[in-house]
Amino acid sequence: MKQTASPTVRRRRLASELRRLRERAQLTMEEVGERLGWSATKVSRIETARVRVALTDTGRLLDLYAVGSAKRGELLDLAKDARKKGWWQAYGDLPTEYTTYIGLEAEATSMRSFAPTVLPGLLQTEDYARAVIRSALSISSPGEIERRVEVRMARQTLLVQDVPLRLWTVLDEAVIRRPVGGPEVMRSQLKRLLDITDLPNVAIQVLPFAVGVHPGTNGAFQIMEFPEPADPDVVFMENFTGSLYIERETDIYRYSLAFDHLRAKALDPDDSRRFIAEAASQFE
Q1: Across all residues in the chain, what is the average pLDDT?
Q2: Within 10 A of 187 (CB to CB), how many other CB atoms are there?
Q3: CB 184 within 8 A of CB 148
Q4: What are phi and psi of 90, to 5 degrees?
Q5: Angle (deg, nearest 10), helices 183-196 and 269-282
Q6: Rounded to whole angstroms, how far apart are CA atoms 284 and 184?
Q7: pLDDT tens for residues 177-206?
Q8: Are 190 and 280 in contact (CB under 8 A)?
């Protein structure tokens, strides 16, 4: 059992089940809205897991879809779990997109990621994280930046908990060379990265500039896998204006194939470790 249960994954599973039941009942979202006195928008937000669903609303949907008692009890229990708050809620009003990501990450059993510009949050030191967050939130208050740093540090317990997250990361050479926060911060960060490579659940590879063009030129992505068969893999991508979650099986396969090509082109973990150590010495 993972130490950090995530209501986000439960909410997505509930949304998927409710959508499947509506389709089985051969009802459109507009028809469901008309029968329950809701807008089609409300039904859509429930089925896309954009809101926490009230238990009474879940019950009304199950009544409408004529769900049997055994399945009804299972889905109501799922709805109760989906309404719980995650540990990250204690850090104030974080953006919904960010809390969704944290919730998925907290429940994942394994993650494959490609990072072309900066280190993934799970691998960052506090000073490195502060420099990255300050750059991204240039108009935010110091207090807000520090809250984000605290959340990022708290997330890293996933790598050392009783049943740790399995993480396989391919880093572009630019991530190792770019002096985020200055030479001292970068030197400490690379030494921390070397320590992390000692964890049995973490694999880190460096993709050298010399390989030229590669399948990750479109940007960073992460593939998250979950313990329950009912929860499909999710690809996460982020840009300057928002986040994208990809769940379609054919798309996930394409990203998995891209990651396989990236790790095949990258230095193996031992050579990557030596590469990182050499880069760290250049920041002395």
Answers
A1: 90
A2: 17
A3: no
A4: -75, -10
A5: 160
A6: 8
A7: 999 999 999 999 999 999 999 999 999 999
A8: yes
